[in-house]
Amino acid sequence: xxxxxxxxxxxxxxxxxxxxxxxxxxxxxxxxxxxxxxxxxxxxxxxxxxxxxxxxxxxxxxxxxxxxxxxxxxxxxxxxxxxxxxxxxxxxxxxxxxxxxxxxxxxxxxxxxxxxxxxxxxxxxxxxxxxxxxxxxxxxxxxxxxxxxxxxxxxxxxxxxxxxxxxxxxxxxxxxxxxxxxxxxxxxxxxxxxxxxxxxxxxx
Amino acid sequence: xxxxxxxxxxxxxxxxxxxxxxxxxxxxxxxxxxxxxxxxxxxxxxxxxxxxxxxxxxxxxxxxxxxxxxxxxxxxxxxxxxxxxxxxxxxxxxxxxxxxxxxxxxxxxxxxxxxxxxxxxxxxxxxxxxxxxxxxxxxxxxxxxxxxxxxxxxxxxxxxxxxxxxxxxxxxxxxxxxxxxxxxxxxxxxxxxxxxxxxxxxxxxxxxxxxxxxxxxxxxxxxxxxxxxxxxxxxxxxxxxxxxxxxxxxxxxxxxxxxxxxxxxxxxxxxxxxxxxxxxxxxxxxxxxxxxxxxxxxxxxxxxxxxxxxxxxxxxxxxxxxxxxxxxxxxxxxxxxxxxxxxxxxxxxxxxxxxxxxxxxxxxxxxxxxxxxxxxxxxxxxxxxxxxxxxxxxxxxxxxxxxxxxxxxxxxxxxxxxxxxxxxxxxxxxxxxxxxxxxxxxxxxxxxxxxxxxxxxxxxxxxxxxxxxxx
Lengths: 204, 471
Known about the structure:
- By secondary structure, chain A is an alpha/beta fold.
- Chain A is built from eight helices and seven strands.
- The termini of chain A are far apart.
- The relative contact order of chain A is 0.17.
- The model of chain A has no long low-confidence stretch (mean pLDDT 95).
- Chain B is of the alpha/beta class.
- Chain B has two domains: 260 residues, Aconitase, domain 3, CATH 3.30.499.10; 181 residues, Aconitase, domain 3 (2-Layer Sandwich), CATH 3.30.499.10.
- In chain B, a hairpin with a 7-residue loop joins β13 and β14.
- Chain B is globular.
- The N and C termini of chain B lie far apart (49 Å).
- The chains are: A alpha/beta, B alpha/beta.
- Chains A and B meet through α4, α6, α7 and α8 of A and β1, α2, α3, α5 and β8 of B.
């Protein structure tokens, strides 16, 4: 499941799924009671676990139940707010989501997505509404999120989206996994550390 | 862009270099870890055959899933035991200090860091927990990070991050009786919105903030993330230095004097440039409660629950929240029956929170209503011990509160402490998200610790000031 460090992400394509609503927090994406595991391996089955079930624990009409082949998630404002749990994008990724398009994202969530190579593209309310309406049709078209051109193709309609420049660079350059990149500068890290008074008992 | 702020000063000192993405490689002065978001990161390190680069700059504790009632090992819950063992193994193998249960230093990571004196002004501090913003109360930059970033920090002691804008939030005046730091931050979030702080770091200041002790400042910075701001801070001052002096990891003697000199030097300049400024009148605040399912959906206790029909844009979200909470537009929150009272969490489980709650119980002679299950979960073993020395535990017990061990507990319901069914909880915690406290149908009303006591005693949401009349 984990992608190789050098892999680039230029475009993701596939069926879409629209999860409507502003401020959908990461407790909704994955309730905390499913985080008592020491790996992310099983997280896919917990995506939107409570939201997808009715009072008798049967699947309801949540979009994730209706579009279980989807790979592009479409959302509204401030998606992924709340807890910093990487379990949230991990659950979405392992459920099958490879890219997300929304009006806006919470910062930590977007950063976590970037670290997994999942683009989080933003667009205006009207554009998102347009994509959602198409996705919600019974035979909804496939979506293509193109990182390079910052567009979403919905069927044969091309809509502009935005991707934060640093995320775009990271995805296209294959440097969204920053561990080895930052490790290559450990000498400079040491210089920075040497200049921080609190790491040296304030020079006393 | 901001200039001359504490944020700029601390950022510049920790910036290692610019990365090809345009992000900054930022050195991390203090890394805190806990049992839930760190095991996967150690697993990734192992996969890549990497070691921890600066093991003396990472400290661990157990808080998220640890039981608060029975700590006998092995824990009753197998998954909890497994996660605990994982943390024990990882910290041992990588020479990381672990504040384990029974050490006297275990507790919620954002209570423990300051208490041990690990959290100091001018540091960059990260943890795999969004409430890392808490540490900003000391004039540090505290950021919540995900597990892949924990891997980055373990391997390099750095994070890749873009610089934010700085919003100065000035809270003027002095707080009326019955109004606390929690009410300040709930008001800020309600007014600026749960996403109002996205892209910003919040600098809190003004008389009302400066008059607060460190515990109150921590409550405010803690909930910065609930307003969308990844970090929030208060410039360090005498209150900060007084709190830190003599704590375990704080420099002593000559180094202390040098430290204070450094800490003063990183304060925001008087003429610093901010990207935005906002002002609140602290003297006009009243005790606050949430009525909805995010921390921004809140009101003053005497205000009516909003009417969706009059809400611009947020109509559907409001209707949905009111449905979940089983509340009517226009009704008062006062008198809403509660089932559970939770006094705990990284927002409000420090010694001054417990002191104020106990004072209220003692002065009013109040006891927990028969209809209510009430628990006090101290933020750390240190807080617990201090409270017991002051005999606060006896006050709580006598009033009908359970007196528990330290941990996150019912704030997020990962251990046994959970809401059941549709129970409604008067909670001193930070999130009222649907399902947050362990039951998918559970309901949370956020408020200050004093308001939790008032609700527990009356069995319903209550304006704590009515209990203070005649003082």
